[in-house]
């Protein structure tokens, strides 16, 4: 009885409430996005919104099971869980079902499918936390950093073979975990500079860009003229930047797929095709803008009802929120996500074990990336890469994956005082 009381009082129920709120918001917006007048009931199991109801119930069962498990299980079996997910990622390349150009699904029958790449997220977070929390492991040590990077990159390689660029990029968010554990801020700055140079090279002449870099390098060398180390660093950085600039054309046209380059061209304004590649984003922005302050009301979105926005219950579910609930609704949803992220970071920081803290930051990083990219692509701030909005977009694999991510952290947190 005492253990049950301890369990009840130590679970972070505020985070559970945020989780349930997002699930319910998602379920109702999926119902509205793909509403069928011949099947009006939100629990009609012959519809996708009825299936989402099943996914939510099964996710709650899964969450309960996780909370009742022994906390040490997650660290002890992290390598096994990672290995099983890797096997599933290999299996999907052999027997997977192709949906939307990606061979990323394993059919379970009855219209249900499993997407292994979703489960690779929590498996990678677990193994990364297990490794980095090991004795004498320091992420600033080259060998430790290489192993940690390999843990992150390995599933990325398998997922890009599907090919699923969106799910692959999600793993890049785990760089924030490495940063929290001691990787130099220069690593993040370098990554940001590389991305900026890549984009700028697509927009302006390489000659002009190199000229600007020469001026910046000359200024820095003059400023640090008494610091030989900084002068060498600036010189090396300049040379590598020039190499990158001259490599962009090859990388862009020979490495990236055509559908990826045309999306980037549309995003940067290099080309405009509102009836083709830019159709989804343009219709999404129209839907969100038409909601104005308070929205058109539940089940009253015209963009939704006439299916102007493809994938409206999955990748573009946020435009349904914008159209039917307006600016007030979208702001509310974003504030819930922001509160959830801050709560997860707060939970991570109060952990006594390194494993729990590192895992918590992995959860926060993945959720942040999903929310930022998904919302950004619906309003045209980032290219369309096709990743779901956590707990809101339609889909069992995504919902289960985020449920596992969050509730493992809640279980670890409930056990931080050694009570459960």
Q: Work out the helicity level.
A: 55-70%
Shape: globular
Structural class: mainly alpha
The succession of helices and strands, N to C, reads HHHHHEEEHHHHHHHHHHHHH
Query: Biggest sheet, open or closed, and with what strands and sense?
Result: 3 strands, antiparallel
Count of discrete alpha- or pi-helical segments spanning 4 or more residues: 18
Number of strands: 3
Spatially, the strands of the biggest sheet line up as 1-2-3
Q: What are the low-pLDDT stretches, counting only 5+ consecutive residues below 50? A: none
Q: What is the radius of gyration computed over CA atoms, rounded to a whole number of angstroms?
A: 23 Å
Distance between the amino and carboxyl termini: 12 Å
- What is the typical, i.e. mean, pLDDT? 88
Secondary structure layout:
Blueprint: H1 2-10, H2 13-33, H3 48-68, H4 72-76, H5 78-95, E1 97-99, E2 102-109, E3 112-114, H6 116-132, H7 142-160, H8 165-170, H9 175-180, H10 185-203, H11 206-223, H12 228-255, H13 258-268, H14 279-290, H15 302-305, H16 317-349, H17 354-378, H18 396-414
Description:
With 420 residues, the chain is mainly α. The chain is 69% helix and 3% strand. The chain is built from 18 helices and three strands. The chain has helices at 2-10, 13-33, 48-68, 72-76, 78-95, 116-132, 142-160, 165-170, 175-180, 185-203, 206-223, 228-255, 258-268, 279-290, 302-305, 317-349, 354-378, 396-414, and strands at 97-99, 102-109, 112-114. Strands 1-2-3 form a three-stranded antiparallel beta sheet, covered by helices on one side. The model has no long low-confidence stretch (mean pLDDT 88).
């Amino acid at each position: 009885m005492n253990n049950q009381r301890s369990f009840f009082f130590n679970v972070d129920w505020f985070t559970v409430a945020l989780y349930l709120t997002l699930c319910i918001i998602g379920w109702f917006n999926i119902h509205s996005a793909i509403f069928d007048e011949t099947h009006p009931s939100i629990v009609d199991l012959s519809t996708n919104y009825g299936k989402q109801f099943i996914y939510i119930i099964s996710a709650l069962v899964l969450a309960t099971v996780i909370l009742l498990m022994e906390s040490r299980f997650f660290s002890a079996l992290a390598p096994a869980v990672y290995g099983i997910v890797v096997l599933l990622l290999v299996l999907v390349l052999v027997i997977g079902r192709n949906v939307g150009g990606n061979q990323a699904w394993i059919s379970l029958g009855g219209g249900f499918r499993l997407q292994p790449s979703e489960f690779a997220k929590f498996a990678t977070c677990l193994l990364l936390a297990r490794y980095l929390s090991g004795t004498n492991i320091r992420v600033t040590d080259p060998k430790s950093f290489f192993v940690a990077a390999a843990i992150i990159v390995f599933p990325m390689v398998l997922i890009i073979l599907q090919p699923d660029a969106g799910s692959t990029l999600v793993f890049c968010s785990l760089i924030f975990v490495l940063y929290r554990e001691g990787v130099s801020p220069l690593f993040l700055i370098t990554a940001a500079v590389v991305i900026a140079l890549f984009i700028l090279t697509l927009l302006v002449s390489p000659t002009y860009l190199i000229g600007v870099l020469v001026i910046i390098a000359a200024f820095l060398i003059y400023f640090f003229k008494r610091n030989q180390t900084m002068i060498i660093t600036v010189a090396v950085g300049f040379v590598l930047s020039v190499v990158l600039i001259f490599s962009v054309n090859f990388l862009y046209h020979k490495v990236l797929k055509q559908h990826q380059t045309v999306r980037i061209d549309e995003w940067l304004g290099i080309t405009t095709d509102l009836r083709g590649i830019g159709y989804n984003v343009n219709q999404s922005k129209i839907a969100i803008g038409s909601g104005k302050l308070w929205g058109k009301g539940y089940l009253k979105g015209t963009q939704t009802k006439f299916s102007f926005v493809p994938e409206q219950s999955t990748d573009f579910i946020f435009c349904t929120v914008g159209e039917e609930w307006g600016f007030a609704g979208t702001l509310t949803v974003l504030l819930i996500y922001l509160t959830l992220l801050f709560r997860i970071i707060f939970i991570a920081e109060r952990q006594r074990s390194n494993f729990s803290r590192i895992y918590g930051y992995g959860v926060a990083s993945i959720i942040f990336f999903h929310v930022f990219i998904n919302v950004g692509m619906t309003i045209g701030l980032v290219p369309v890469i096709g990743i779901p909005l956590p707990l809101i977009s339609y889909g069992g694999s995504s919902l289960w994956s985020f449920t596992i991510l969050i509730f493992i952290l809640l279980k670890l947190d409930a056990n931080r005082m050694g009570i459960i």
